[in-house]
Amino acid sequence: MTDEHAAGAGAGAELSPGGAVVGPDGLARCPWALSAPDYLEYHDREWGRRLRGDDRIFERLTLESFQSGLSWLTILRKRENFRAAFAGFSIEAVAAFGARDRRRLMADAGIVRNGAKIDAALANARAAIELPGGLSRLVWSYAPDPGPVPQVLADLRSTTPESTALSKELKRHGFRFVGPTTVHALMQATGIVDDHLAACCARGAAGRGSRA
């Protein structure tokens, strides 16, 4: 969970006793969900819901890597552009990208034109292909045992022992831009950990899977 995710709640929201925020529809959510319509959609449909599949995990990992140093809202609003630019996040397709594709990506104003992050995405696709059991299996193998349910945003951590260990393993396989904070954000986003606050209406929705 980044600082940008945890931005203040929107107008008219009220704090609930559990630390979540009650919005105009009467439902309590994690505070960051009500700071922008894009966040509300993402919170309710995707964040914290279990997600599996190599290409789908690769998409989330790539977006989290591009988010580093930026607002997550920026990434969400460019998401469809990213999907078009990166061949729907097909690992096989991205792994085959060459110099011409890199130049195309660097010229694409619809995405984040950061050379190091673009190079990392291409390298990560190639590394993912080489994983014996696939990217999804590796990432999910670091799922932690359930811990205390967070009551307020201050209870959330930016890294965990599991995200640190997974970060090291990904780097060992040649992945880039996969520090412990980025990896923990990936684990939160894909339901490997459920960091919805206790009073949030989406708490426990992870088992139903992503609707994206």
Report on the structure:
Strands 1-2-3 form a three-stranded antiparallel beta sheet, with no helix packed on it. With 212 residues, it is mainly alpha-helical. Mean pLDDT is 90; it is low at 1-18. The longest helix is centred in the middle third of the chain and has 15 residues, at 115-129. Helix 2 packs antiparallel against helix 7 and helix 2 packs across helix 10. The protein is globular, with a radius of gyration of 17 Å. It is built from ten helices and three strands, in the order E-E-E-H-H-H-H-H-H-H-H-H-H. Helix content is 43%, strand content 3%.
Key terms:
three-stranded antiparallel beta sheet; mainly alpha; 3% strand; 3 strands; 212 residues
Query: Largest beta sheet, briefly?
Result: 3 strands, antiparallel
Share in β-strands: under 5%
Q: Number of DSSP strands?
A: 3
Shape: globular
The whole-angstrom Rg is 17 Å
- How much helix is in the residues? 40-55%
